[in-house]
Write a sequence for this structure.
């Protein structure tokens, strides 16, 4: 368990809570606005608390997840997901846990991420053409994908199921 997880436990112990609509309440009952962190690909709502003379920041959705799922959120391979892919929506209905694959499937379902660049048939064709001597660079151009992605497909790092 990392320091970020310990801060979430401490915030919960002190009485910080996320309401069903995603608002954050301090131990005194007042609503905390938090602030948006834009240092990642998606913005997240952060809360800061003082522990042992130092300020620590944590993501509000992790506090919401701890409220709903307790220590399960700290298990290896478990991540906290925003079901609707809106990273600023911390309503309890929108906070779920799962795996990275579940999170990817959410993004595909919600239209925030494309599923796959090539169909299974296109992957088979590309691999066959490569086996016949066509270069990965040529195949990448033909299928409209980057060379690095094409080589991952050809080497079996991607589309392992095809």
């Amino acid at each position: 368990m990392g320091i970020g997880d310990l801060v979430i436990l401490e915030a919960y112990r002190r009485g910080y809570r996320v309401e069903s609509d995603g608002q954050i309440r301090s131990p005194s009952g007042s609503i905390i606005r938090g602030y948006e962190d834009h240092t990642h690909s998606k913005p997240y709502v952060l809360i800061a608390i003082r522990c042992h003379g130092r300020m620590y920041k944590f993501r509000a959705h992790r506090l919401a997840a701890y409220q709903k799922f307790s220590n399960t959120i700290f298990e290896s391979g478990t991540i906290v997901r925003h079901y609707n892919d809106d990273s600023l929506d911390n309503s309890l209905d929108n906070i779920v846990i799962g795996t990275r694959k579940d999170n990817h499937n959410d993004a595909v379902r919600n239209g925030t991420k494309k599923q796959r660049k090539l169909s299974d048939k296109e992957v088979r064709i590309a691999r066959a053409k490569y086996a016949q001597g066509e270069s990965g660079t040529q195949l990448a151009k033909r299928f409209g994908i980057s060379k690095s992605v094409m080589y991952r497909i050809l080497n079996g790092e991607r589309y392992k199921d095809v």
Observations:
- Residues 120-154 form one domain.
